[in-house]
Automatic annotation (TrEMBL):
Organism expressing this protein natively: Niastella populi
A Pfam family hit: Peptidase_Mx1
Listed name of the protein: Substrate import-associated zinc metallohydrolase lipoprotein
PROSITE patterns attached to this UniProt entry: PROKAR_LIPOPROTEIN
Source species, domain of life: Bacteria
SUPFAM superfamilies given in the database record: Metalloproteases ('zincins'), catalytic domain
Length: 291
């Protein structure tokens, strides 16, 4: 009986697909090499400014497979792509190149950017503005809210979104740096016992009084380290000093100064980067977009 069933299966398969059957043009099936399009101004911009000099790809065409399937997200509007990428180049890439050299950025810059129009909301009510995965891929959200000086509808309050975007980028890149060469162990000891998974229930001002630059810095030592870097760069020296000087607790101010010193020395000793100069360049580039 078993041999009869196998024989019947062979007959059915032979009947279903004959050698002479026309399968059509398989090259026209999306994903198998047939999905082509003419390069646009956006594609040419990415190639000239990101792919050719840094071997970086930026994906703006919608692909849910690149993102969380359980999140409701929207694609970026095309008119936002070049302004966003141009700002990223001027504020982040160009300034690191100026301070550390092009070879440094070619080596450590993530090679794949995924651009998303909307925010990525979490179940606890927090928002993920960006992620970095293994130093190879960065996902940036909320691009549809991006407006800089000179763009239609820009108002001064939009500067908050600009700073948030670069805060995110500097934060994620700082993760890549410390995952390559870890910061000194002394940094972890400064706020030992102060880290908590309930950071989202703490205001930034409250976190400041506990010796953290932001509430999110309270989530873990690694986050504390990269939050220090991202705030110091995105706020500039004057903005950072205003935060520290507004803290009532002398102990909290002392903790932040200890963390600041470790950050500055880490950039100098590990990467040969003058942090003060990078900080000035970065903040000046942000100011050029918003003022």
């Amino acid at each position: 009986m078993r041999s009869i069933k196998i024989y019947l299966c062979i007959i059915l398969l032979a009947a279903a697909c004959k050698k002479e059957d026309d399968l059509g043009d398989v090259s026209a099936i999306p994903g198998l090499g047939g999905d082509t399009w003419a390069p646009t101004a956006i594609d040419n911009y990415i190639k000239t400014n990101f792919t050719d000099p840094f071997n970086v790809a930026a994906k703006y065409k919608w692909d849910q497979g690149e993102l969380d399937f359980d999140k409701t997200l929207t694609p970026p509007r095309e008119e936002k792509i070049i302004p966003v990428l141009d700002a990223i180049k001027k504020v982040w890439i160009d300034n690191y190149v100026a301070e550390a050299g092009k070879t440094f950025m070619q080596k450590y810059i993530p090679k794949f950017f995924v651009l998303v129009g909307s925010a990525n909301w979490n179940l606890d009510g927090t928002i993920t503005l960006g992620t970095a995965e293994g130093g190879r891929r960065i996902v940036l959200y909320v691009l549809n809210d991006f407006r800089i000086k000179g763009m239609p509808g820009y108002v001064q309050s939009d500067s908050v979104n600009i700073k948030m975007m670069f805060h995110t980028i500097e934060h994620e890149f700082a993760h890549i740096l410390h995952q390559t060469v870890l910061y000194p162990e002394d940094f972890r000891r400064i706020s030992v016992g102060g880290y908590t998974s309930n950071w989202n229930n703490v205001l930034d001002a409250e976190a400041n009084e506990r010796g953290f630059i932001t509430a999110y810095a309270m989530s873990a030592a690694d986050e504390d380290f990269v939050e220090m870097i991202s705030i110091m760069l995105s706020e500039g020296k004057a903005g950072y000093e205003a935060i520290v000087n507004n803290i009532a607790s002398a102990e909290a101010r002392s903790k932040l100064r200890e963390k600041e010193a470790i950050v500055v020395n880490y950039f100098k000793d590990v990467w040969g980067i003058n942090f003060a100069s990078l900080q000035t360049r970065t903040r000046n580039s942000i100011n050029a977009l918003i003022k």
